[in-house]
Amino acid sequence: MTQRSGLVCVECGASVPELVRDYGKGNLRLAICSVCNAVADKYVEYERILLFLEVLLLKPQVYRHVLCNLPVPVSSRTTLKLFVILVMLDMNVKAYLVDRDAGVTFRSESMYKTPDTLQSATSGVRIGQFSLHLVCLALVENIIYFLSIFAIIWLDPFRRGWREKLSNGESGNNEVATRYASAISMCISSFGKLFALLTVIWEFHWSFIHGIGALVVVSNVLALQLLLGEGDPERAKSLHVVAVVVFGLVMRGAAQLVLYAMGNSVLFHVLV
């Protein structure tokens, strides 16, 4: 099998020369990690749907596989597509809260509070306006959240050597680590927002959204901790990484408040 640099054992995080060993005559075996004596990466045999389910279950091993051991590194185009999907999922959450009139604060002159007669007369136009408005809000908030986290990682105020780790590819595959690793880890670890689609099928109390937000935050911390080499997340969460994610949440909340102060017609009481 062709060897590739940057491969890691998904169990312990140690570097490994290969994931699959070829003994000849079509006899292929999963490689064993020399450090922990476990299978280096069991996920090379998994279908993508199973990988996705493991991601939702917050398995650190699958995050190591996705960030470091994928046969074909995630491209910038794929990363952008993932981000667009996240924005649309966020828009769905906002539409749900507006429809339930829960977890939101409206201005008295908000376009969401027009008289019923006017809404029925211009329903098609209004729906288009509402959708575009919510998409724009979701886009702005997610951009600020992501950029705030990327900025803190790059500035490295805690002197953890994060910039050097990413630049040198110490956290995984060189090509991915130096270009898109932070964005990939944030996008993949935010897909807990898919659970918000359950609100289309069943009725939930609006506080259900807070549970989804907590899941996304924990996933973000897990992915960034693995990416930045801040220890084993199964044993303890890195307070430095937690601080980075909290900063992103604060900046996202501040963006909502600024937009509301500038005349935005609705303020949402959820951050993620």
From TrEMBL:
Principal location listed in the UniProt entry: endoplasmic reticulum
A Gene Ontology biological process term: regulation of plasma membrane sterol distribution
UniProt keyword Cytoplasm, yes or no: no
Domain of life: Eukaryota
Statement: the UniProt record of this protein carries the keyword Transport: yes
Record's GO cellular component terms: cortical endoplasmic reticulum; endoplasmic reticulum membrane; Golgi apparatus
UniProt entry keywords in alphabetical sequence: Endoplasmic reticulum, Lipid metabolism, Lipid transport, Membrane, Sphingolipid metabolism, Transmembrane, Transmembrane helix, Transport
Membrane topology term: Multi-pass membrane protein
Compartments where found: Endoplasmic reticulum membrane
Transmembrane regions: 130-155, 176-202, 208-229, 241-262
Pfam families given in the database record: Arv1
Role: Mediator of sterol homeostasis involved in sterol uptake, trafficking and distribution into membranes.
Family statement: Belongs to the ARV1 family.
Protein name: Protein ARV
Organism placement in taxonomy: Eukaryota, Sar, Stramenopiles, Oomycota, Peronosporomycetes
